[in-house]
Amino acid sequence: AQTVTQSQPEMSVQEAETVTLSCTYDTSENNYYLFWYKQPPSRQMILVIRQEAYKQQNATENRFSVNFQKAAKSFSLKISDSQLGDTAMYFCAFMKLGSSNTGKLIFGQGTTLQVKP
Amino acid sequence: DVKVTQSSRYLVKRTGEKVFLECVQDMDHENMFWYRQDPGLGLRLIYFSYDVKMKEKGDIPEGYSVSREKKERFSLILESASTNQTSMYLCASRVRTVLTGEKLFFGSGTQLSVL
User: Fold this and answer.
1) Largest Cα span, chain A
2) Residue B60 at interface with chain A, using a CB cutoff of 8 Å
3) Interface check B57 vs A, CB under 8 A
4) Stretch A49-72: mean pLDDT
5) How many Å apart are CA B46 and CA A103, to the nearest integer?
């Protein structure tokens, strides 16, 4: 069975600074996706970034980038130039691919990020 | 934009009541999911459906059932609500294309309190 672990329940960062959120996962699969989702106080889950396991290049989306270490099963999220609107809960998630892919996501426990002015 | 709508944002029910949580998506997606979100536990999958009238148990199905009579609507049913079912419930639908890969779209959640 797959598991996802986020070991930082809460983090804070000053506006305009950089912060890194950690995520580790455990799987015997070789073909999968990893995701970071953001959940602001509105509760709407927003996809931040996605990484296909077969791609060696780390995914980037504007101020958001990941450090994907497949051998170490690590998938951290870096937020550069933090903005007040980045304040939210962040979830790391895993999806198995392949012929048995059902689209199920396995989530970590979440990290609450507060950006301070 | 894909829209996933959950009928209630907040719901308060009594122990033993039958509770229906409704979710509707407007993009003809085949796969739909119900998750519950609890502090410190993240989101856990209750049930999912991969087509009309087709369903499968997730990781924590006990005390829940689901109904999918039409493609756009996926209902979560608490047959006899209990206090340990007080939680946030999130619905999602999924699309997978060659161009976009995997994408899930979430509703904005129903916060259920069982008293």
Assistant:
1) 47
2) no
3) no
4) 95
5) 14
For all residues of chain A together, what is the average pLDDT? 94
- C-beta separation of A8 from A72 below 8 A: no
**pLDDT tens digits for chain B (115 residues)?**
778 999 899 999 999 999 999 999 998 888 999 999 999 999 999 999 998 988 999 999 999 999 999 999 999 999 999 999 999 999 999 988 777 778 899 999 999 999 9
**Cβ pair A103:B96 closer than 8 A:** yes
Q: Determine phi and psi for B5, rounding to 5 degrees.
A: -115, 125
Q: Which pair of tokens denotes residue A48?
A: 């931040």
Q: Which residues of B touch A102 (CB under 8 A)?
A: 31, 48, 50, 56
Measured in angstroms, the CA of B94 and the nearest CA of chain A are apart by 7
